[in-house]
Design goal:
By secondary structure, the protein is an alpha+beta fold. The protein is built from 18 helices and 26 strands. The protein is 31% helix and 21% strand. Bound molecules: iron/sulfur cluster (SF4) (2 copies) and zinc ion (ZN).
Length: 580
């Protein structure tokens, strides 16, 4: 995935991260920090520090926050089976902390350890003090120096050499296995001494980071403000979600001086603290705030769709895009410019969309992101530089805020939610009863497998289970040459279908005791059958009809037959059809 270069550099002089080439404090050239792409950074807040303390205490017997209390620390979220972060101190990745998916606990892997699969405590060879001294001088570990061998030590695999206190001294390649000992010769070929990395001594804090990046940030901020100024006089909204990125986008919009309205989309799954925080922020900046409320749309549709998944995000369409479409239709006849705090680094789709884009699901919305090419470290520096109050959920250790049970979150993050938010427990109860009702194995809930409709390979092989695919309407086409007959696995509501079929030109279909559709319109016809049967009333299609022929009644869309001109323009992205 290409997301632009990762700009994390370090000033070894001042011991702070640098976004550009030079440090604005000492003017010296910065050094590139080697981190795993794509590069999603933050400074550890309270909840992150607790995770770091827990993992370091457990494995290395030290208190992270005490040892590194005066140093600048940066975290880099990296891809992995579950929540994983590189810990950067002094411009070096000193360790990776991860939510261990196998054991459902926090685990720590000192930097060079990532290749080993098992847990540190069982992959060690304890050496005697004389051997330790010799290793520190650059020698390998010889067989007579061995005191104890951990259970998972394997020949030709990574192993830690630890001292009497179980403190790792070095990492090397083992020449022996637990059960295959040797009397003499080399036991471990040492690769790294654990104190190999010299972390610069200088103290640092956020003020120093701001100083060291002042010119770079100023340049980038001005560019973003200029971009927003171009919207002056246009119908402009700022979408404020209560997250860090939209906070920065909102603040840049305020600085630009243009006139805009702020909207907050309450999906019905927001943390209550987020809603309070958004209102408080709106008051503080005296914003003209509209709350677009999806109401109970999620829960009303949960039975129909089942739990949402990463590969099955019906929730976004129903709870976000539907209400936004309806809002835009109500507030404008033409295009509305929506300033959104979206960044390319967040995902591939986002990186492809550029700074200005149209949303194929939401007619008339033109999205603009003034921070499209910012990385998350810039976002955090901006927030601290301008003294902005951020959503309190970040202090709990979340990297992003949003719906409380969003399936795109890792289990490590959902655990934080579970421990701090009662609603999540209700959600878990729902999942358990759903699993029971559908004969789904327990792991579906305990390992968060519900977050996929079809499991990724590594989970499929681990759990011997493909995932739980929800059943929906199935349609069979019988080919009569120029016409098709449609058969379905369910009874079709013909009153609704007759109404919805108005979308097609007259004479292109017949609905009597059979459903017959002209070959030319067969694909649209099938979509109409799904829309007729499975419509969830999101209202997305209503935004595409310029004759105002579509309306919502009792949670479903209907056609005003007198207004409809059978133009088929309303046929487009629809969740009932997309997630069939
Ligand atoms: S047919 Fe129903 S589900 Fe599909 S877009 Fe229209 S309102 Fe939404
Ligand atoms: S867009 Fe409106 S007028 Fe055109 S087919 Fe759909 S409902 Fe009818
Ligand atoms: Zn410097």
């Amino acid at each position: 995935m290409f997301l632009g270069k990762i700009n994390l550099n370090w000033c070894d002089n001042c011991n702070v991260p640098i976004l550009g080439k030079k440090c604005d404090i000492c003017n010296s050239e910065s050094r590139k920090v080697n981190v795993t792409p794509p590069g999603d950074f933050k400074f550890p807040l309270k909840g992150d520090m607790e995770i770091l303390d827990e993992s370091f205490k457990d494995i290395l017997k030290i208190n992270f926050s005490e040892v590194f209390s005066e140093k600048v620390i940066v975290l880099n979220r990296i891809p992995g089976p579950d929540r994983s972060e590189e810990i950067i101190v002094g411009g070096y990745v000193i360790a990776t902390v991860m939510h261990d998916f196998n054991n459902l606990r926090v685990a720590l892997r000192p930097h060079f350890y990532v290749v080993a699969k098992e847990h540190l405590k069982d992959i060690f060879i304890q050496a005697d003090p004389v051997a330790i001294e010799s290793i520190k001088k650059g020698n390998n570990l010889m067989a007579p120096g061995i005191i104890k061998i951990g259970d998972y030590v394997k020949k030709d695999r990574d192993v830690f050499i630890v001292n009497d206190n179980k403190i790792p001294i070095a990492l090397g390649i083992s020449r022996i296995s637990k059960n295959e000992k040797i009397e003499k010769g080399m036991a471990v070929k040492v690769k790294f001494l654990m104190d190999d990395i010299k972390i610069p001594d200088k103290k640092g804090d956020i003020k120093k980071i701001i100083e060291a990046n002042r010119n770079y940030m100023k340049y980038r901020e001005e560019k973003s403000v200029e971009m927003i100024k171009k919207l002056d006089g246009k119908n402009t909204l700022v979408s404020f979600s209560g997250g860090k990125d939209s906070l920065v986008a909102l603040h840049l919009a305020i600085r630009s001086g243009i006139k805009f309205k702020t909207v907050f989309l309450n999906t019905g799954l927001e943390f209550k603290e987020t809603i309070e925080y958004v209102k408080k922020t709106a008051e503080k900046f005296q914003l003209d705030l509209d709350i677009i409320d999806a109401g109970k749309a999620f829960f009303l549709n949960l039975d129909h769709f089942g739990p949402p998944g990463r590969d099955y995000r019906w929730c976004c369409k129903v709870c976000k895009l539907g209400p936004t479409t309806r809002y835009i239709k109500e507030h404008s006849n033409g295009p509305i410019y929506m300033i959104i705090g979206q960044r390319a680094y967040e995902s591939k789709t986002r990186s492809n969309s550029g700074e200005i884009w149209e949303n194929r699901w939401v007619p008339n919305q033109i999205g603009i992101s003034p921070i499209q090419n910012w990385n998350s470290l810039m976002v955090w520096i901006y927030i601290f530089e301008h003294g902005l109050e951020y959503n309190p959920w970040y202090d709990n250790g979340l990297w992003r805020t949003g719906c409380f049970m969003c399936p795109s979150q890792d289990l490590g993050d959902l655990n934080i939610v579970k421990n701090n938010y009662k609603e999540y427990q209700k959600w878990e109860e729902f999942l358990k009863s759903y699993a029971k009702k559908n004969n789904i194995p327990d792991e579906w809930v305990s390992y968060g497998l519900w977050r996929w409709n079809l499991l990724p390979k590594f989970l499929k092989s681990r759990f011997g289970f493909d995932g739980f695919k929800r059943t929906s309407l199935e349609i069979e086409k019988i080919d009569y040459g120029t016409r098709f007959e449609i058969k379905a696995n369910n009874v079709i509501d013909l009153v609704r279908l007759k109404n919805m079929m108005n979308i097609l030109p007259k004479n292109s279909y017949e609905i009597n005791n059979k459903i017959i559709i002209d070959k030319r319109f067969i694909d649209i016809g099938i979509q109409i059958i799904y829309e007729s049967e499975e419509c969830v009333g999101c209202g997305i299609c209503t935004g595409r009809c310029d004759k105002d022929a579509l309306y919502l009644k009792n949670g479903k869309v209907w056609i005003n037959e007198e207004r409809c001109i059978h133009c088929t323009k309303c046929i487009g992205p629809c969740p009932a059809y997309a997630f069939r």
